[in-house]
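User: Structure tokens for this complex, please. No commentary.
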Amino acid sequence: MDFFIDSFLSAASLIWSMDPEFLVVVYVSLKVSSTSTLIASIVGVPTGFLIAFTEFRGRRLLITILNTLLSLPTVVVGLFVYAFISRRGVFGVYDLLYTQKAMVIGQVILIVPIVTTFTIAAISRIDERYRKTALTLGANLLQTAWLILREARFGIAAAIIAAFGRVIAEVGISMMLGGNAKGFTRTMTTAMALEYDKGLFVLSVALGIVLLTVSFAVNLFFNYFQGKARV
Amino acid sequence: MQRQILWIITVTMGLFMIPGIANATENVLKMATTTSTENSGLLDMLLPHFTEETGIRVKVFAKGTGAAIRDGMDGNVDIVFVHAKDREERFVADGYGAYRLGVMHNDFVILGPFTDPAEIKGMHDAPMALKKIAEKGAAFVSRGDDSGTHTKEQSLWKATGLPLKTETVQIVKNLKKHSFSSQHPEGLGQWYHSIGQGMGKALTYAEEKQAYTMADRGTYLKYKFGRKGGLDLEILCQGDNRLFNPYGIIPVDPKKHPHVKFQWADRLANWLVSPKAQHLIAQYKIEGQQAFFPDVISTLK
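Assistant:
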């Protein structure tokens, strides 16, 4: 029990002290995770939209593949990207490995399937009559799409929240592609892994508590948007 | 139906637990060691001989020195095999370790890219070499993980006389405040990369960034010659006796943790300093070069 009390008190003192080194870690985490969530949303939401509304051969297969990619291990994504961007890889000349950009690339690959499949699910739930009514009332395709997007925003917001949660909590990609370099690519999760390796468990758990606190703040923000939608 | 499913789950879980119980009665000794020991391949050669002789199997957990010692303090392992002499002695003095035996040593080398921007090639004075790297602002990769190698690196930076930044983290332990500190030269976030990972990762990181770094010779040889497309880094500074790296073995004291298998740990520790093991250590070669020098039979050198 003492262990958890110690961890909570350490977390509190960590937040209270506002140590600049610690703030950099939180900042890097947030910056990388929100960048990759943003990119993945820009790619994933329209893709999900297209898949939900068009009929083509292999559509079901594509959805199954996307669903399978939900269980993509971070280490696999890490290795895959590593092979391409390391100095010996095809894109080696761009000096990408162990930078925040590399982390974003890996994380985007990880969460595009999440955003896409959740978007498909959210849109499929919207009554077909919405679309038909809008079309008969003279809305063009773009306006119809906008209407449905508005109707499905609760589900789409959930897709984005899930994707953000996945990247801010993942450690494999950040470690392999970011390299945990202090001040450059150290995130909250890689810092936790490090403190565990050093044997400072209390600090590791404290960082976990901070991560959840930060995540809570981000979700409050999302909740504001979601709350306006009819559930 | 639900009850049946519950039964199936319970039985399955029970089946998984049986081997766990069976394992506990087997002759397995748990050893915490450093990643550099494990990465060098020495233990893979050495431990089968011990198992053959005594029937005791050794389970190896490779971590940073800090975590390995912590495992010993918590009684998670029976024996600790690390290389940070001051900390090992403190570990014994604090009553966690029963005793410490010096087993062997190897040395650290300072590595860098072939182009050598800081011009340290051929230097024998390690702190001077680091000073030149710092003054040039050439990229340097630090383990930064509180390991034995990191401890050594910090002591060398201290010897350069450069202004160092001390960093302190505070944690609450048993409701009391404790602080841990580490030191690094100015330039963190610019040329000094503190990556907080093991030796192997530090080497590949340095190679990738074509940066300077410090490594134990064994791991370096393994990465340079032991694989295809060897490490693209050269030894630029070596031979300073401040780069000396002694390894010690410490059984966890049964007075602190009654459940540890002290008898076997004691046997392993004494076996490692026996003539047979010492000869094996001396004969162990990585890519044709002796990597470790036994401490008890030093004449073998």
